């Protein structure tokens, strides 16, 4: 004796939560009519048929009309019998209907989708249980449609975090470079003292290295155009430039450049000989032309052991008054700075102090406050 069985149709929509779907959409019972005599099919005979209806809609406004029409639909096998309501009346535009290929044409598979996404293909073994809301098919579809949005949101969040970190780092750097420097020793790390190879074995080198290394400053030997040129110069690392309009320092890519300050280290005997031969001014003139110095370039004439030279008895000897007169004239004509040192320790300490003073000297002094405000100007 045949029993009347009904097939439960579950609406699938990824635009609403699972809990809301069961509350809002009623359960529709679609009777399955046997092709022989029009009698209802039993539940045990459902496995003989593979009629599958998949509804995938992301537009909740279409569900009411679709629900009303699905209540009257009866699915049958492909026989001469026709359903009372042709399926073609519900067929969406061709772009949304996916036709099974190959052997899948043997079973009736109707796929309705109102989304633009690729419909998940159904195999021959798909039955009524595949339409359950907890089925792997539904989970796979939800995952495939929602995962790109999740990744996009994560990417945008990461991008926003990176942008905020960059802005924060730039603000911190801007604040640091505009701080007023009160300790000249803290600027020594930006300098490299370049010493002529003439002084490679001079005693003051080791003493100066020891003093500078404590503050991250180093010494480098270089070959001047003239190997006998007793020259010392300073190279600084620049990290900012001064903007006259904004009145503040602007960060720039790091670069190194020579400071416009040069130290000419001569012994007392060399100075006495130059005074007697009247070649002292020529010595500085050669230095300017060789290194293309300008009128604003600063030159330190450092003389080692001059007081000891005055006290030592030797013949012939250039008198003290002659030396001091020549140095005063040289200082007035060449606008150089005269420094007298005694021994390697004193020489190293003076070079250490000059390096620190250069670190305190602002590059904007010359443009903003004038030429006279440069350090050691006479």
UniProtKB/TrEMBL annotation:
Pfam families: ERCC4. InterPro entries: ERCC4_domain. One of its GO terms (molecular function) is nuclease activity. Residues 131-147 have a biased composition (Polar residues). Residues 1-21, 126-153 are annotated as: Disordered. Residues 295-353 form the ERCC4 domain. This is ERCC4 domain-containing protein. It comes from Thanatephorus cucumeris (strain AG1-IB / isolate 7/3/14).
């Amino acid at each position: 004796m045949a029993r009347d069985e009904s097939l439960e149709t579950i609406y699938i929509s990824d635009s609403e939560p699972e809990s809301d779907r069961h509350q809002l959409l009623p359960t529709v019972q679609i009777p399955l009519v046997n092709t022989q005599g029009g009698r209802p099919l039993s539940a045990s005979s459902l496995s003989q048929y593979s009629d599958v209806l998949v509804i995938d809609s992301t537009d909740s406004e279409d569900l009411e009309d679709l629900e009303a029409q699905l209540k009257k639909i009866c699915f049958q096998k492909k026989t001469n019998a026709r359903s009372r309501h042709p399926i073609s009346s519900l067929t969406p535009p061709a772009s949304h209907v996916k036709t099974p290929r190959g052997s899948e044409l043997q079973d009736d598979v109707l796929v309705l989708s109102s989304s633009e996404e690729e419909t998940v293909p159904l195999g021959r073994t798909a039955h009524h249980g595949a339409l359950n809301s907890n089925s792997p098919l539904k989970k796979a579809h939800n995952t495939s449609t929602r995962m790109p949005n999740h990744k996009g949101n994560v990417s945008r969040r990461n991008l926003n975090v990176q942008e905020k970190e960059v802005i924060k780092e730039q603000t911190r750097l801007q604040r640091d470079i505009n701080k007023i420097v009160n300790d000249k020793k803290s600027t020594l790390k930006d300098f490299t003292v370049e010493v002529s190879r003439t002084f490679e074995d001079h005693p003051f080198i080791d003493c100066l290295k020891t003093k500078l290394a404590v503050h991250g400053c180093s010494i480098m030997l270089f070959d001047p155009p003239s190997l006998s040129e007793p020259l010392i110069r300073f190279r600084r690392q620049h990290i900012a430039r001064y903007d006259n309009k904004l009145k503040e320092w602007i960060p720039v890519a790091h670069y190194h450049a020579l400071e416009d300050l040069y130290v000419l280290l001569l012994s007392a005997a060399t100075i006495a000989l130059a005074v007697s031969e009247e070649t002292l001014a020529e010595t500085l003139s050669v230095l300017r032309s060789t290194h293309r110095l300008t009128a604003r370039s600063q030159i330190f004439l450092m003389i080692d052991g001059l007081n000891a030279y005055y006290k030592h008895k030797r013949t012939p000897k250039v008198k003290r008054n002659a030396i001091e007169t020549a140095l005063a004239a040289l200082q007035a004509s060449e606008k150089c700075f005269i420094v007298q040192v005694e021994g390697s320790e004193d020489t190293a300490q003076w070079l250490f102090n000059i390096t620190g003073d250069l670190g305190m000297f602002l590059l904007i002094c010359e443009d903003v406050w004038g030429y006279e405000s440069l350090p050691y100007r006479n």
